[in-house]
Amino acid sequence: MTTGTYTMRQALHTAFDSALAEDSRVFMLGEDIADPGGGVTGLTKGLSTTYGKERVRDTPISEAAIAGAAVGAALEGMLPVAEIMIMDFVGIALDQIANHAAKARFMSAGRTPCPVTFRTPVYGGSGNGATHSQSLEAWFMHVPGLKVIVPSTPADAEGLLRSAIFDPDPCVFIDETALHGTRGPRLDTPDRRVPLGKADVKRPGTDLTVITYGRGVRDALAAAESLSRDGIEAEVVDLRTLLPLDLPTVLDSVGRTRRAVIAHYAVEFAGPGAELAARISHDLFGRLAAPVARVGSRFMPIPASTRLESQVSPSPQKIEETVRKVMEDSRG
Amino acid sequence: MQLDVSSQTPGDETLLTMYRTMTLARACEARLRKGFGSGEFAGVIWPSRGQEAIAGGLSTALRRDDRLVTTYRGIHDLLAKGVPPAEIMGEVLGRGAGASRGKGGTMHITCPEVGVMLSTGIVGSGPPVAVGLALAARLQGSDRVVAVCFGDGATNTGSFHEAVNLAAVWDLPLVLICQNNQYAELTPVEETMRVERIADRAAAYAIPGIRVDGNDPVAVHNALSAAVGRARSGAGPTLVECLTFRYGGHYVGDPQVYMAKDRLEQAMRGDPFPRYERFLIEHGVADADRLAALDAASVAEIDEAITVVLDSPEASLGELEADIYADLAGVPR
């Protein structure tokens, strides 16, 4: 089926289903992923019934062992998908991800590549508080050897997840539960993959570029609609992968619009936007009509009250305000 | 939980293979120390002098296609699994002849051709990876077994306990080999755990836990063989504690201020070499001349390997950007 629409939840399920069906090296392990639960939110429902509990394996609550077991299996040529149930739990697994998966190819001079995928959802935006809401993608951007992926649409989620699973290097695939219900057109590529390292212009524009990913894309598109009513046409660049980072697409867009706003739910201070701002400012210094601006989460633990959380996180309104300010502050 | 361990003496060929492994490990460390000490070359190793009998037992308990995970203090284990000495010493010295052409270093030597899938420099990180290697064997329909070596200190990490529990729950073909050398870096084992026998930790996961004299290669061989047999039959993992002692400090040059002199002297009276040599002579396996010849052959093999290493180029600058990813297009510039 390549026509019609589906939700991101269905898209992720479709990616797992097709990968398991297509290649016997693919298997999944994680907490509560097997039936009857099929994941705490039911996202993997039915997979263990179809493919068996050898290939869709429930684990104890042992993130270090889950990640390490996935690393070990990948060293043997398997294509494991390890689920870390909520991104905030990744700290327990970080040694295996950052010290073993990421460095296995390099330290062995290519003798033991590690084609593992760590899939971990972000629960931010739903009042879960400081240890169940974080967007920690910048942590992984500091580790040479990893690839870091955050989809914003259902089709991208399916295609990027399939690319991650079959990629020869370790991937950290981050989906956001706030987007799981988002509906969009089905993926329509022959191999049902979306290449890693390729940004996507989600909305063309001429006056300013908003560079973002994940939930930020949703917010930026809403802001762009509102701005358009006032004659400001914002281009929205969806990075889709933070590592590899598609700088050519970013620089091409900002080179044309001469203004850039970077938006993400990760903490703004030293967040992914800091690297982007530095690159844009350096490479396009003479071209820019205004300083690069950022909209990230405020530097504080995420409060549980949704009223307070909304103050900490980006929003369409905050992006819109920032864009208007950049437009006002622009020179010639 | 019990595991039947043979008390039989293995055949002469096995006994002599273990002796050769032990002498090779001792010769390798001695040659590297000599080079560091004389200024002939620079490098760092974490010595395994005193722990060679474990390598002896390991070398005869595993099949070539069985897997091994070890640690930064693992040169003896690597030799036991058949990693060529030039690949080990080349990696220690950062040369082109090294297992990863100088990019891994002493702590990170892999040689998948002989089943060495990982050496880790992070205490406690090996067991979870070994669980995955064992899981892959199961999923791939192979009867190969995975052995993972670690020290006493590793058994105090959460990572170790998570891994043993998971291996037990899944009945994986894994042999957990604790080389209890009685020091975790600079701290004696009795200050870091209440259990007297690390093997007792197996009880928490309802798997067999065996303690053996880690300075007796025959005892190690028999325990590991039983554990490997159990793993290969599909019955699940075993924890084998090999009680030994670290004679050479945490690293080469360690002044060992934390260790009482008489404790080291007493421990060295249990040196695995003279004991095993007496055993081999008394059992008529070999006479003193034959053993001396085997030792000399190991020394010669190491000397030949170090020549290959020193004749090989230093790590190439061309290696810098290779192997970060499969495709270099992903590297930020």
TrEMBL record, chain A:
Q: Which residues form the Transketolase-like pyrimidine-binding domain?
A: 6-182
Q: Which cofactor does it need?
A: thiamine diphosphate
In this chain, composition skew of type Basic and acidic residues spans 318-332
Instruction: Note the CDD domains from the entry.
Output: TPP_PYR_E1-PDHc-beta_like (cd07036)
Which InterPro entries does UniProt cross-reference here?
A: THDP-binding, Transketo_C/PFOR_II, Transketolase-like_Pyr-bd, Transketolase_C
Q: Where is this region: Disordered?
A: 306-332
**Residue runs in coiled coils:** none
The UniProt regions of compositional bias labelled Polar residues, in chain numbering, are: 307-316
In its UniProt record, a GO molecular function of this protein is: oxidoreductase activity
Query: Which terms are listed as keywords in the entry?
Result: Oxidoreductase, Pyruvate, Thiamine pyrophosphate
Q: Which Pfam families match?
A: Transket_pyr (PF02779), Transketolase_C (PF02780)
Q: What is this protein called?
A: Pyruvate dehydrogenase subunit beta
Species of origin: Streptomyces fuscichromogenes
Q: What is the lineage of its organism?
A: Bacteria, Bacillati, Actinomycetota, Actinomycetes, Kitasatosporales
TrEMBL record, chain B:
- Alphabetized UniProt keyword annotations: Oxidoreductase, Pyruvate, Thiamine pyrophosphate
Q: This protein's superkingdom?
A: Bacteria
Indicate whether Transferase appears among the record's keywords. Answer: no
Q: Name one Pfam family in it.
A: E1_dh
Per its UniProt record, what CDD domains does this chain match?
TPP_E1_PDC_ADC_BCADC
Q: Where is the signal peptide?
A: none
**Care to name a GO molecular-function term for this sequence?**
pyruvate dehydrogenase (acetyl-transferring) activity
The GO biological-process annotations, alphabetized, read as:
pyruvate decarboxylation to acetyl-CoA
Show where the Dehydrogenase E1 component domain sits: 20-314
Which cofactor is essential here? thiamine diphosphate
Give the residue spans that cross the bilayer. none
For this entry, the protein name equals Pyruvate dehydrogenase E1 component subunit alpha
Encoding gene per record? acoA
